[in-house]
Amino acid sequence: MExxxxxxxxxxxxxxDITPGYLENRKKDLLLLPxxxxxxxxxxxxxxxxxxxxxxxxxxxxxxxDIGTRLEQAAKRQDLKEVQVCIEQLADYLNRVEVVYL
Length: 102
Description:
Blueprint: E1 7-11, H1 19-38, H2 42-55, H3 62-77, H4 80-96, E2 97-101
Parallel strand pairs: 1-2
Helix pairs in contact: 1-2, 1-4, 2-3, 3-4
């Protein structure tokens, strides 16, 4: 049952073996993103955003794809404020997401 702090995402049981690793890799991205912001490394920001955009929905995480799209576009514009918003939203999402396999 979903509480107000949890975000329940229903994922195909066929992805059960690889989903935890996927989410762990997004958490690793969260460690890289602040450094890229500090260094104004827009190429790294674009690359991470592009990767999330292309992969999230395939695992059942449309929100990750959406954030990836926004992150990639913000990096292209060199909009650090929007990049920071994306990072904060991704961190919040990853802290609250609960996967249910169907």
